[in-house]
Amino acid sequence: MTLVRERRRQQALKLSLPPQIPAADLWQPAKLPALSFAIQPQSPDVESFSKLEKLAVLGHGNGATIYKVWHCQTASIYALKVLRVDQHTTDVWQQAGQEAEILKRVDSPLIVKCHAVLNSGCIDSDNAGELYFLMEYMEGGSLQDILCIHRKLPEEAISRVARRVLEGLCYLHSTKIVHRDIKPSNLLINSKGELKIADFGVSQVVASTCDPHVSYLGTCAYMSPERFDPERWDGDKEGGFAGDVWSLGIVLLECHVGHFPLISPGETPDWATLMCAICFSDRLEIPETASPEFKSFVSRCLEKDWRARGTVDELLRHPFVNKSSGTKGWFG
């Protein structure tokens, strides 16, 4: 009886993707508006998305659902991001195209790998279609998952997180890509304990998410002062790279104190509260229990004036990110 129920469950989870799309047409947009985001498969065992089956829902965010999927011909496991796109919503379509273009450009062990992007090839009665991003599966979940379990991390682990993210940002910034959404849920971990940067879905539209109807314990919560209020803080004229450093500082401080550090535990992270905390409050207080190296590092990340903030190159040379060098620990 258990076997029958399991078979029915697997059948119910079958992914409703276009059946048996010819290999020659698989990577080209069909009836949806054309976008120059076709990514040729970088893994030879991925021939057809019709061979994928859902195993579980990994999460939701930014209008997408992420599934753990199984390729039945090769028994390979992937993450599949399914983004529903209204063809008449220009900004969403442009955002999806931007994400796909970025994923096509990046190739680094510090960034979650994208194997392919395609669309469903059809539009429903609501004039919407779906985009599929076939991604590397990160077995260890996210840094957010780690924090939910451990709440706080030891400084050695935080040091390793800092180094990995800085190395990833160094790569991205060298290719003129600003992530704009560094936060615990976008830092994923594989079975080897290696941390990688994921999710470029809001890289170009972060500012438009700041309205009172959006949950702020997300993108806006980790946003730098010059992004949150560019007029007051003389928005970054150098492309926004300093904003990624601010976000990293907030993430690391959260790892140390065990909660989102800009507001008190239980306080509602609405627009006004975050605006005051990010743009008007004095320098953030770092717990006395922190080491001098950690205090110095986070202080360099969280300079409110982006021109005075530490750069990625400078921070990679900081004693804090080198304190655990050569020793084994979390995150590779």
UniProtKB/TrEMBL annotation:
What reaction does this catalyse? L-seryl-[protein] + ATP = O-phospho-L-seryl-[protein] + ADP + H(+); L-tyrosyl-[protein] + ATP = O-phospho-L-tyrosyl-[protein] + ADP + H(+); L-threonyl-[protein] + ATP = O-phospho-L-threonyl-[protein] + ADP + H(+)
Q: Which GO terms describe its biological process?
A: response to other organism; response to stress
What keywords is this UniProt entry annotated with? ATP-binding, Kinase, Nucleotide-binding, Phosphoprotein, Serine/threonine-protein kinase, Transferase
Which enzyme type, at the first EC level? transferase
- Sequence positions that bind ATP: 81
Q: Does the keyword Transmembrane apply?
A: no
EC number(s) for this protein?
2.7.12.2
State a single Gene Ontology molecular function.
Answer: protein serine/threonine kinase activity
- Identify the residues that the record assigns to the Protein kinase domain, covering every copy: 52-321
One family name in Pfam for this protein: Pkinase
Instruction: Write down the InterPro entries for this protein, in alphabetical order.
Output: Kinase-like_dom_sf, Prot_kinase_dom, Protein_kinase_ATP_BS, Ser/Thr_kinase_AS, Ser_Thr_kinase
Organism's domain of life? Eukaryota
On whether Cell cycle is a keyword of this UniProt record, the answer is no
What family classification does the UniProt entry report for this protein? Belongs to the protein kinase superfamily. STE Ser/Thr protein kinase family. MAP kinase kinase subfamily.
User: What is the protein's name according to its record?
Assistant: mitogen-activated protein kinase kinase
